[in-house]
Every structure is written in structure tokens, then in C-alpha cells.
Amino acid sequence: MIKYCMPSISLNLTVDQIKALLQISQNQIFRLKYLDPKMPGYKARPGELEAAESAVQALMAALKEGRLGPQETPPMPRGK
Question: What pLDDT is recorded for position 74?
């Protein structure tokens, strides 16, 4: 077995971009879990599903906690 280590990376993404990535990722995880194993010639890739689920969980947690960048503050109302 060969193991390798990847460094962490930092990205600046909008909330909408994160939501889109989460949707696509969740769809892909569904495919990996339920559809791919039924396909002829399917070969399991150990760790791929766990890594994908972990990444989705991290993105969801970051989105919920608001750690995805500076929060936008609404404009101050102007006085008359």
C-alpha cells in the first residue's frame, strides 16, 4: 500500500459557490455509495467515499458556523 500526504490549501469562495459544491458533492457521494457498485466492472477505491464524506461534512460545518469568510454587514439606514 502506498500512502501519500497532501498539504492543506486555502480558498476564497462565496456562500453560493460552497452551496453549489455541496450539492454536486452530495450527488456524487450518492452515486459512489449506491449506483457505482452495481455497475459492471466496478472496482472499489478504498477510502474515496470516506474522504468525500469528510470533505462534505467539513464544508457543511464551515457554512453553518460562518467560517467561510467575512460576514457581510447590511448597510446602515440613512437618517432624514
Answer: 45
